[in-house]
Amino acid sequence: MGGGGFDEEGRVFSEINITPLTDVFLVLLIIFMVGASMAVDAATGRAETATGVEVELPRGAAREIRPGEITAAVFVLADGRVVLEGEQTSDDVLVDRLAGLLQRTGSKTLVVQADQGASHGRVVRVMEAAKEAGFEHLALATRGD
User: What one-character-per-residue DSSP string does the chain give?
Assistant: First the structure.
């Protein structure tokens, strides 16, 4: 006989193979672990953008910008580097690159996402460059409580 639910002697095979069940549970565990770490990052305010730049935003209680209003952003990292459209930008071309961003997006609002460890003077210089490039409204990104 053999096959089906019988052993070689024709008796009913009554043992359960739990290996596939264990595999399914391990895959689910991995999915939940990855999902949980992403949720913790979102809850603690560590913002990783579509450009792959991670900025630790300071806390703040200012008003929210209306949805659809944000179309342009510049990042100031803790070590003073400026990232615009996913590329590190030097000070000598910052105004030109910001002016190009203004033309492409048509938005007069620029959001400055500065790391909480960034120098205040560095953030002010970036904001001055944005004003010189033609942005009319500047916003500092913060994380809520």
Answer: --STTB-TTS-B------HHHHHHHHHHHHHHHHHHHHHHHHHTTEEE-TT--EEEPPB--PPPPPTT----EEEE-TTS-EEETTEEE-HHHHHHHHHHHHHHH--SEEEEEE-TTS-HHHHHHHHHHHHHHT--EEEE--B--
